Automatic annotation (TrEMBL):
One of its GO terms (biological process) is coenzyme A biosynthetic process. Residues 321-351 are annotated as: Disordered. Signal peptide: none annotated. This is DNA/pantothenate metabolism flavoprotein C-terminal domain-containing protein. Belongs to the PPC synthetase family. Residues 335-348 have a biased composition (Basic and acidic residues). Coiled coil: none annotated. InterPro entries: CoaB-like_sf (IPR035929), DNA/pantothenate-metab_flavo_C (IPR007085). One of its GO terms (molecular function) is catalytic activity. Residues 53-104 form the DNA/pantothenate metabolism flavoprotein C-terminal domain.
Length: 354
């Protein structure tokens, strides 16, 4: 147990112990070995060709509440940033390892006739464009897709791929756009079966669902019906542990020569730059890109992302990133650079000023 570790343990040993503990306690995804074999081949191939390679992580990590998972907590991410960035990296000649959440495409689908699934009309052109680019990149062996679902799947995959990228040195870029959960339910506290919302099963296990509830529950007027035969609703209290901060392990151990870009998502503009700078100082990697939730929501209206680039030894740089339009025509990213925060309300309606 981590709580048994003596308090004088140096921080680097603590990070290693937290890593060992986490990866031993949380089982790997069932396809990890297969993914590692594919990633190894892909990385070796591009390394031999002297090509630059990027690992793009994308989408939200889920936090299962049950081992046989019916319910889970999710992090906000549609996977747009990761997918769009992967496209730009491919255009720039990078080989792309795309570690992505599995459900990113669901928003773009609708039910078709006879139980079929088709792209929504408004997204069809964009999806066709993406599909063609995807097939082309895959056929040229420039793109490898690795899916994940839960936070522990993601961390196992990230660690394995980052370690495989070590021989690439600074030709390997890790671009961490996935929305990574900060909290999780450790397996030893996770219910095997679906968490029940009433006491019906307890009553049933005690010998039949007609048994009266215990005396203290009898006083609880519930479901607008005080009859003891009616199952009582239960509130759900979830006790989550913090996910260890593995960016330190990534920077220092898994891929110490790699170029590492992380993202910081906040909702409070007052703390964004501070949190981004703190992350950079703490983990000593190469770039933190800060973005604000409200402004991501405004993206559709403004077709622009204002965000801040925080890197070592440089002043903070606010940039406006035009949103790629749905026909897929590319406009260069980071067209406008400013050293001041961008007030989204000050931006013109319609096309970005680039
Ligand atoms: C981001 O901030 C991404 O830009 C978004 C992109 C998830 C907001 P969408 O997928 O959204 O286009 O809808 N990612 C957050 C990365 C993150 O969770 N970072 C962690 C942290 O800041 C660990 S590196 O602590």
């Amino acid at each position: 147990m981590l709580s048994d570790i003596p308090s004088e343990t140096p921080p680097e040993n603590l990070a290693a112990l937290a890593e060992d503990h986490y990866f031993a306690a949380n089982p790997p995804p069932k396809d990890l070995a297969k993914h590692v074999a594919l990633a190894r081949e892909f990385i070796n191939h591009h390394s031999a060709a002297g090509r630059r390679l990027v690992l793009v992580t994308s989408g939200g990590t889920t936090v299962p509440l049950e081992k046989q998972t019916v319910r889970f907590i999710d992090n906000f991410s549609a996977g747009t940033r990761g997918a769009t960035s992967a496209e730009y990296f491919l255009e720039a000649g990078y080989a792309v390892l795309f570690l992505h959440a599995t459900d990113c495409f669901l928003d773009f689908l609708r039910e078709g006739p006879n139980g079929s699934v088709v792209a929504r009309d408004e997204d069809a052109a964009k999806m066709l464009h993406v599909l063609r680019k995807y097939r082309d990149a895959r056929d040229r062996n420039m793109l490898l897709l690795l899916p994940f679902v839960s936070i522990s799947d993601y961390l196992h995959e990230l660690r394995s791929v980052a370690q495989l990228m070590r021989p690439l040195g600074p030709r390997g870029l890790l671009y961490l756009a996935a929305a990574v959960s900060d909290f999780f339910v450790p397996p030893d506290r996770m219910s095997e079966h679906k968490i029940q919302s009433t006491n019906a099963v307890e009553a049933f296990k005690k010998g039949g669902n007609t048994a009266p509830p215990p005396a203290n529950e009898e006083e609880t007027f519930d479901n607008f019906d005080s009859s003891p035969a009616v199952p009582r609703s239960k509130s759900l209290v979830i006790d989550l542990d913090p996910v260890p901060k593995f960016l330190k392990n990534l920077v220092e151990g898994w891929s110490p020569q790699g170029m590492i870009v992380s993202f910081k998502l906040e909702t409070d503009p007052a703390i964004l730059v501070h949190k981004a700078r703190y992350s950079l100082d703490r983990y000593q990697h190469h770039l933190v890109i800060g973005n604000l939730f409200a402004e991501l929501q405004l993206t559709v209206a403004l077709k622009i992302h204002p965000e801040v680039f925080v890197s070592p030894g440089s002043p903070d740089r606010w940039i406006r990133v035009p949103f790629r339009n749905s026909g897929g025509e590319s406009s260069a990213p980071a067209d406008t650079e400013k050293d001041e925060p961008v007030d989204p309300k000050s931006l013109p309606d319609g096309e970005p000023e680039v």
